[in-house]
Amino acid sequence: MKRYSVRFISASLLDLKVARAWYKKIDSNLAIRFAVQVRSIVSRLQTLPTAYSIRYQTIRLAHVPGFPYSIHFTVNENKVVILAIRHTSINPDIWTRQA
After folding, report:
1. pLDDT in tens, 13-37
2. Relative to the CA of 79, which of 12, 47, 60, 95 has its CA 20 to 30 Å away?
3. Is 79 helix (H, G, I), strand (E, B) or coil?
4. Which distant-in-sequence residues (6+ apart) come within 8 Å of 69 by Cβ?
5. CA–CA separation, 58 and 46 (whole Å)
6. Do the beta carbons of residue 20 and residue 34 sit within 8 Å?
């Protein structure tokens, strides 16, 4: 099976850090569960990123199970680029215009 490399842009790493910090304020176990779910999705992206549908332009979304977050990413040849990890209530048009 084909394996894709995964790269986080700096903004997506910041998104992850902010979300984890928010969950940690509520409960440290919740922050750990969130990180585990994100890692699980990233692992799936390494093997089958095209299973996730294109939502706008060339950007695909993978929802984080159990949390109101989506991972926004693109697929180019053998590489998955994670652009953002955003709360599902945020309008993606807002941040795509900022990019």
Report:
1. 999 999 999 999 999 999 999 999 9
2. 95
3. strand
4. 19, 34, 38, 63, 85, 86, 87, 88
5. 18
6. yes
